[in-house]
Amino acid sequence: MQYAAQKLCVSLNASFMAIAVCLAGPVAAQDAKDGAPQQAAEETAPIAEIDPALQAAEAALAISPVFDGHNDVPIQLRSRFDNQINDFDFSDTSGTGSTHPDGRVMHTDTARLTQGRVGAQYWSVYVPVSLSEPEAVQMTIEQIDVMKRLIERNPQALRYAETADDVERAMADGRVASLLGMEGGHSIGSSLAVLRQMYALGARYMTITHSRNTPWADSATDAPGHGGLSDFGEDVVREMNRIGMLVDLSHVSEEAMLDALNVARAPVIFSHSGVRAINGHARNVPDSVLARLPENGGVVMVVALPGFLNEERREWYAEREAVQARQQSLYQGQPDMVESAMTDWDAANPEPATMITHMADHIDHIRALIGVEHIGIGADFDGMPSGPVGFEDVSGYPQLFAELARRGYSQVEMELIASRNAIRVLREAERYAARVSDMPPIETLLPSAKD
Question: Do residues 251 and 214 touch, judged by C-beta distance below 8 A?
């Protein structure tokens, strides 16, 4: 019913726009009759060609701005500036190339967020998996602090948010609703008490693992250690549901995804993932898991990282790694020889280009398999070298949605993908937490008590 009403609203808006155009025509013609100089008309610059698909995308994003699931600005603040941001200008980061060893300019600033029609952003609080758990807890708190300070320093563009209502209010006021998401379960130190306190500090989702297993959950890119989630891992999911924190299943193994879906009572998210049917990377979501999402209500926020999108690019990279390993074996202790061999190989085997169309292919697959209600966007900007051609930074979202328009996506469907699905999932997690608010916290024995 609501879906039909949205479609009717879109149809009426289009009709009103058409009437306005028709009414404007006779007025302009009358002005010319009443003596408007002909020379002015002759000197008028040619009308630029209008891309109907981009127009459709802009119309959808004007109503429903992008709510992106994953942006790694916080770790950029640490690696580039040691979290010293009192003099950092976030309105324009185009001059930040000198702060990166490879000369990379940051993908994100407030000017480009505006260009990209971004209305809400989960800022990823990532810390390396190489840290011990106590170190990871400390660094996570430091990264929450620096991102909150950045938001506070840019009130004209950003607004801190913790709830779905906060998101909608910020969007209505033309600010980017800024939420925090923790990337990696190692950040709670295997403690539900720490998990609860991270939620109190503002973290609204947690990615169960990053690139390695935690003591209680398997990563997609590590050797299986638990067969999915341990008993404690299942308690982590239950406690996240109880307090209203979204369970993020990007980075986790297929078995851990399925275990989490067995336990979860609120919708899950994949904050930045593709689909494995299009690109076979272990980080992507298999169809066996996608098939479970409708009953859970969750959302896959499709990533923009080329290696997760373009299967040809993934295979190229695997071949390059194999060649490099062979050269290192052949020329041990001779790095110049290895570098020369790889330079020759790169010249003969250029990296396959990844386009916006590759990203749209992943969106198409989810839509065809389980429906548009389970799709969002989680690009992973500032956590990768670059996005696809034409979508290299946060200004490029309209181009992605223009590609969807070319593929026949309606305005309502684009609005759902842009932000309505993400807002719904956040609100449903809040509602579940409210329903079980009388449920006591899950308690576990402290390590000292177990020994």
Answer: no
Helix (H) or strand (E) segment spanning residue 376: strand 375-377
Handedness of CA 139, 140, 145, 148 (dihedral sign): positive
Residue whose C-alpha is closest to residue 379's, from 277, 302, 441: 302
Runs of H (alpha helix) within 83-163: 110-115, 133-153
Q: Is the pLDDT of residue 1 over 80?
A: no
What torsion do the CA atoms of 311, 374, 162, 159 make, to the nearest 10 degrees?
70
Write out the H or E segment, with its range, that includes residue 123: strand 118-126
DSSP class of 333: T
CA distance 439 to 451: 28
CA 364 vs. chain centroid, Å, equals 17
DSSP 124: E
> What pTM does this model have?
0.88
Residue 399 one-letter amino acid: Q
- Position 281: which residue type? H
How distant, in Å, are the alpha carbons of 29, 149, 327 from that of 337?
74, 47, 8
**pLDDT digit string (tens) for 190-207?**
999 999 999 999 999 999
Question: Residue 230 has which token pair?
Answer: 């341990």
Report the Cα–Cα distance between both ends of the chain, in Å, rounded.
57
What is the pLDDT averaged over residues 118-133? Answer: 97
Q: Please state which CATH class domain 60-305+371-450 belongs to.
A: alpha beta
CA distance 168 to 161: 10
Task: Please give the helix or strand (H or E) that residue 374 lies within, else none.
Answer: none
Residue pair 223/180 in contact by the 8 Å Cβ criterion: no
What residues are labeled active site? 70, 72, 183, 210, 251, 272, 380
